[in-house]
User: What shape does this take?
Amino acid sequence: MEKFNILNNYFFTILIQVNEQIDDKYIKEFICSNLQLKNISYKHKYVYYSYIQQLNSYQVFVFEKNDFALLFLDSINSDSLYTLLFYDSYLILLKNKKLYYFLNLKYKLNEDELIQLIKNKLNIEISKITNLDNKSFEKLISKSQKNKYNILDFSSNNYLNALILNCILCIVFLVNYFLYTQNRVTNSVENKVLFTKEKKDLKTKKLIDILNNSFAHNLKFKDLTIKSNKIDLLVSSNKVVNIENFSKKIGAKVNFLEHNKQSSEYEAKLFIQENR
Assistant: This one.
């Protein structure tokens, strides 16, 4: 993964595509899950995220030394909704003077081409671009308010709280799966072939896919059970469409769907049948 450097601020970034914007109360778990999936270390670090509406994606930044001067740009002199900056080989788009989209260019473009690039990628009309050198960039940062908007703090062990749901589900999955595989191996030597490392990895990836999509569709898990060739889920949401889109995305079938008057939420039992 490529590492970037702006004024000795080292960081890397990933783009995560979603179906819709994640509810704020689920965003930390969602980002944790995706960083884990990509084997990206974020312990004792700060993570910044931006929801890019035009791409229906989240751009996530992980700063190595907890120094993120790139974010402090709100002193820029601009009355426009969007402001386009160019520094070194980096294209930096601000929305309401906050970092919105970052792009590292592998080739040289003139100002008109840079503006056209943003129009093509995000369908945003930009009238001008501001070129920055080291001195002007540092001056811009020094005058900024340094408000830590959209920053997730994993600098202490408190970051583990964001992973409680993931850990519980993973533990349930692993215990069920271990017991099941042990029983199958004991009962039939021939069935050992079914439980190779590839098969286990496939199930683990499926669980991660379920977790990611639950965050993306603003769902709450009530229960999860791993059976021989089926995964049963009990989920809830304040919108039926969230449950419907979630079930389609993960390839699950709906057993029942009902409205809980006490919680004012919809609850659904889903199951995923594996092909044997």
Summary: The CA atoms of residues 31 and 60 lie 8 Å apart.
